[in-house]
Structures are given as structure tokens and as C-alpha cells.
Backbone:
């Protein structure tokens, strides 16, 4: 599953970011394999707002589509 497919309120662990360019972009934001995030808000045709160890971030959909995740806990 990729981050753009995760329902609001769900906590996930980042498994991988396959694209090297996107991996570097995510690393600059404090995200990488093993990190966890909670999906806070999904803006229609816009960014995905997540909260993680680095704080609250707005991720573009293209980046979110490259981030493979595993569900840690289901959202409400």
C-alpha cells in the first residue's frame, strides 16, 4: 500500500521509497524507512497532511504515491 491510499486517522510505518529522487526529498523532510506517520487530512486534489516524528507535514501526492507503508493502527 502507498501513503496516498491510507485512510485519515491511520498510523503507518514507512517501509520503502523506491524512487531515489523521492527518497532524498523524503529524507529532507525527516521521513525514511522505519519512520511512522499518522494521516491527519487528505485534501482533495491536494496534499496529504501527516504527523510524524518530525512534526506535521504536507506531502505532495506524487511523493505520497512513492512511499510504501504498512498499517500500524487503523483510523476511525
Residues:
Amino acid at each position: 500500500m502507498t501513503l496516498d491510499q491510507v485512510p485519515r486517522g491511520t498510523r503507518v510505518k514507512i517501509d520503502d521509497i523506491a524512487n531515489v529522487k523521492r527518497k532524498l526529498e523524503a529524507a529532507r523532510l525527516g521521513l525514511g524507512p522505519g519512520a511512522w506517520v499518522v494521516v491527519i487530512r487528505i485534501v482533495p486534489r491536494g496534499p496529504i497532511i501527516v504527523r510524524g516524528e518530525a512534526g506535521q507535514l504536507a506531502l505532495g501526492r506524487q511523493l505520497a504515491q512513492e512511499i510504501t507503508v504498512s498499517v500500524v493502527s487503523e483510523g476511525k
Observations:
- The CA atoms of residues 67 and 75 lie 19 Å apart.
- The longest strand covers residues 11-17.
